[in-house]
Amino acid sequence: MPLHEIFVGLGVLVASVVFVREARSRGALNEQSLVAVTGALVGGAIGMRLAGWLETLDLQSLWLYGSRSILGGLTGAYLGVLVAKRVIGYRERTGDLFAPAVALGMAVGRIGCHLTEAPGRPTSLPWGIHAPASTPECPGCLAGQAMHPSFVYEIVFQLAAFTALVWARKRLTRPGELFTLYLAGYAAFRFLVEFTRANEILWLGLTGPQCFLLPGLLLLGLRLGYGWRRGYYDALFDRKVHQ
Prior knowledge:
Layout: H1 3-25, H2 31-56, H3 70-88, H4 95-116, H5 139-142, H6 150-168, H7 177-193, E1 201-203, E2 206-207, H8 208-229
Antiparallel strand pairs: 1-2
């Protein structure tokens, strides 16, 4: 089994364990929540493959050789949960259960990306890394250039996000806000880290993932502003709730 797939599998396993522990601690571990997990896994797998196919527009390689997109996987997982909950008539919110699990699972999965994929754009920074010349789709690797360790940046972010989510989970009492904060934080981080990635520029100096993220960032910004004005995050900053 390829190294990348091994770490993706480990990431899914870690995320599943964290989800079960989180659901049990909140008294939400039941058949319905496990169906939601199944929807996330199926939707995530389909989303990753479809996103990879859309990047290459190569129908033959859709399942056998299609690239895997984290953003496509997350979008597919989110839709998969919605569909699964709709089918079984489950109305409870599950996003807060998924947030810490996704963060830690992503950190593990990205280790595989770091070990097997083109790391990032060339850099003169002292922590630039040299990847093997055999790394696919990496001209900088062939030239022996030092490059941004973009996947290491993401591993660090996801570990920090997991720590922050665990700290905040008992302070945020309104359902869904923990998941909203994670989505907003990851979307903003991913948009910025793309400037160090080796992805193709598509429009106005932006890569495909950045173009995909733009409308989401706008909506999430509006949603965070709405929550801030209504005091949803007061407990995180020791602000007094206005009556």
